[in-house]
Amino acid sequence: MAAAPAPKAQPGEVRRGLVPLRRVEPEYPPKALASNTEGVVVAHVSIEKDGSVSAVQIVRAQPAKLFDQAATKALMQWKFSRTDEPVLGEVELRFSLN
């Protein structure tokens, strides 16, 4: 019995560990600051061929909804390396008070 060939990366596959050329830190939401709340947001970013971010989709957030807007606003300003084709990447942003 022959071994199955290794699966090829699918065009719509989500890539993790992407390093931006330009990273804009999100502003800490005043509501979270006032309540001393920390959190994390995981988002999928659509990266165009020129490295710009064209869309952000929040896939997980703790606490829910509190940091979504700040994360989206910051991620839309990120810039990545040029690619041959658009890429879907996964990014995690941590909001911590330190």
Task: Tell me what you see in this structure.
The chain is built from 2 helices and 4 strands. A 4-stranded mixed beta sheet has the order 1-4-2-3, covered by helices on one side. Helix content is 13%, strand content 32%. It has 98 residues and is α+β, with helices and mostly antiparallel strands.
Offer a concise description of the structure.
The protein has two helices and four strands, in the order βαββαβ. It has helices at residues 30-34, 68-75, and strands spanning 14-16, 39-47, 53-62, 87-95.
Write the topology of this structure.
Layout (H helix, E strand, L loop, with lengths): L13 E3 L13 H5 L4 E9 L5 E10 L5 H8 L11 E9 L3
Parallel strand pairs: 1-4
Antiparallel strand pairs: 2-3, 2-4
- The side-by-side strand order for the widest beta sheet comes to 1-4-2-3
Question: From the helix content, strand content and strand pairing, which structural class follows?
Answer: alpha+beta
| CA(first)-CA(last) distance | 57 Å
Question: What overall form do the CA principal axes indicate?
Answer: elongated
CA-atom Rg in angstroms: 16 Å
Which residues sit in consecutive blocks of at least 5 with pLDDT less than 50?
Answer: 4-9
The mean pLDDT is 91
- The number of helices is 2
Number-wise, the strands total: 4
Beta content: 25-35%
Major beta sheet summary: 4 strands, mixed
Order of helices and strands: EHEEHE
> What percent of the residues sit in helical stretches (DSSP H or I)?
10-25%
